[in-house]
Amino acid sequence: MASFPTSLRGVLEQIPKAAIDSLEEIRIRENRPLEISYGSRPAFVKLDGSLTEDYRVAYVPGRDECRAMLEKITNHSIYAVEEELRRGYITIAGGHRIGLAGRVVLEKGQVAHLRDIAGFNVRIARARPGFGAQVLPGLLDEREQTIGHTLIVSAPQQGKTTLIRDLARCISSGEWHHPAAALWRGRKVGIVDERSEIAACEKGIPSFDLGPRCDVLDACPKAEGMMMMVRSLSPEVIVVDEIGRAEDAIAINEAIHAGVKVLATAHAATLADVFARPVLAQLAAEGAFASYVLLTRRGGKVAHRVVSARQAMLEGASRSGFKTATTTRPRDAPEARGAEGAGHA
Predict the structure, then answer these.
(1) Which residues contact 2 (CB under 8 A, 6 or more apart)?
(2) What is the CATH number of the domain that holds 19?
(3) SS3 of 199, please?
(4) What is the CATH number of the domain that holds 243?
(5) Which GO terms describe its molecular function (predicted)?
(6) Domain of 25?
(7) Whole-structure pTM over 0.70, yes or no?
(8) Residue 186 domain flag
(9) Last residue within a domain, chosen from 90, 123, 156
(10) What is the Cα gyration radius of the chain?
(11) Which of 65, 91, 123 delimits the end of a domain?
């Protein structure tokens, strides 16, 4: 709440507790109604904090409030967060990402920065201990007694970051949630936290519990960070969020061939979407991942489905029209292990 101007904070602090407890997003748009998202549903906010579906009676933040908001989240120095502004977001203490809307300034055809910022989307970061417990047993590499290479996919705001955060904690702590893994030790986990959301570091120290054997490269580009991890921090598992660029694929393959397990997320609503994205499709065709986890929001719960690499190729490639001459068996997928599964978190 300290990131909001006084007048706006006064409205938000009156929101019903049930909505606060399940709050996901706060959307502030200059001269437009204040909106929140909670428990997978949207609502507009009135002056007294009560919720409504009628935008015409909602509280409307003005220019002064939006300017004050920008000053607060940048600590009165826009130049200090110039790189984040170029990417369209600012991450504040606690790992909360604030998306920004405004006028884009281009230099040589590339986004240089944003100006005239008049929209903010505050995405609330939450730790969900136990979220990974239902998913992790289907991702294990029993031969090497660790997690297999895994890609978690979903549309935005389905829980990918929350899930990998808890999976990192489980792996680091040795909480494998499977009878066969009762004696397995925890693994050294390296998190490349490009957007400062997974660990929510403050002065290099994670705000979230990531277990006892975890190192974080905060605000570091993914591809470069993965190579830095491999060269200097000897991780056994590398965790990265939202892959999709060609350089990400190169770094993932380098990490895999260096004997490091990779746990990553990507935006894709279905397996067909995975194979429709060239970089992800190529990684899949090369057998980079042993398992895929698909997350979907159903009401107030997140449903998950674990799919083996072979099934993903059959299901996703055929539906997307992706063509490949050969299907490479994943490097760490035991033939006998059942990788299909479903559940709720």
Answers:
(1) 72
(2) 3.30.450
(3) coil
(4) 3.40.50.300
(5) ATP binding
(6) 6-123
(7) yes
(8) yes
(9) 123
(10) 21
(11) 123
Report if residue 298 sits inside a domain. Answer: yes
Residues 6 or more apart whose CB falls under 8 angstroms from that of 181 comprise: 137, 140, 142, 145
Close Cβ partners of 113 (under 8 Å, ≥ 6 residues apart):
82, 85, 86, 105
Report whether pLDDT(133) > 90. yes
- Cα–Cα distances (Å) from 5 to 1, 63, 219, in that order, read 9, 12, 26
pLDDT band (50, 70, 90) for residue 299 = low
For residue 343, give Cα distances in angstroms to 41, 161, 294, 304: 22, 18, 11, 5
Rounded to the nearest 10 degrees, the angle between the axes of helix 222-232 and helix 246-257 is: 20
Instruction: State pLDDT tens for residues 8-30.
Output: 999 999 999 999 999 999 999 99
Report the alpha-carbon distance of residue 161 to residue 158 in Å, rounded. 9
Amino acid residing at 284: A
Confidence of residue 329 (pLDDT cuts 50, 70, 90): very low
Same-domain check for residues 230 and 281: yes
Angstrom distances, CA of residue 331 to CA of 49, 53, 254, 278, 286? 54, 51, 14, 21, 10
